[in-house]
Amino acid sequence: MTDGGLEATGPHVLETGVLRLGPSEARADIGSPPSPEPALPVVEADIFFLFDSADFAPGESAKLDRFAVALEDPAAAAVTFLVLGHTDAKGSAAYNCALSARRADALAAALAERGVAAGRLVAIGVGEALPRNAADPTAAENRRVAFAPLKAADADRIVRLARLCP
């Protein structure tokens, strides 16, 4: 939904689920049954950006503060996180890849400014390739940012995700 120039991604601040990369590496399943492909657990974050921009919407500072505090919790302090930027399917694929990368970078930078070690954040834009709502590729809920805790075994998945937006 677009409201006053802001992109809204949905009513929830956080939604947990999994990201499964199948043979096409072009879909995200949230809350679906297990598949043979190992899942990457993700937290979908409703961080709002100005429309067609990587600038945060007014009022997002408190939400960013809460994310930074959560990432600095002792239980998560040694974890590296993947920050995935997403867009809807409006615009060209190349433009959406660039926009999603700028959004992921903006979120990683904002968290680093709040004390999260920059080395713990790996920002990747995947454009429109992994929609939350595949039935409506231009839906507002496809414009989002997601987090995933990373382990050494996830290196191959990061390479595969990075290839979605060369």
UniProtKB/TrEMBL annotation:
Q: Keywords on this record?
A: Cell outer membrane, Membrane
Q: Which residues form the OmpA-like domain?
A: 36-153
Q: Which Gene3D superfamilies did the record assign?
A: OmpA-like domain
Fetch the Pfam families from UniProt: OmpA
Q: What is its main location?
A: membrane
The compartments listed are: Cell outer membrane
Q: Which CDD domains match?
A: OmpA_C-like
The answer to whether keyword Membrane applies is yes
Kindly state one GO CC term assigned in the UniProt record: cell outer membrane
Please report the name of this protein according to its UniProt entry: OmpA family protein
Native source species: Acuticoccus mangrovi
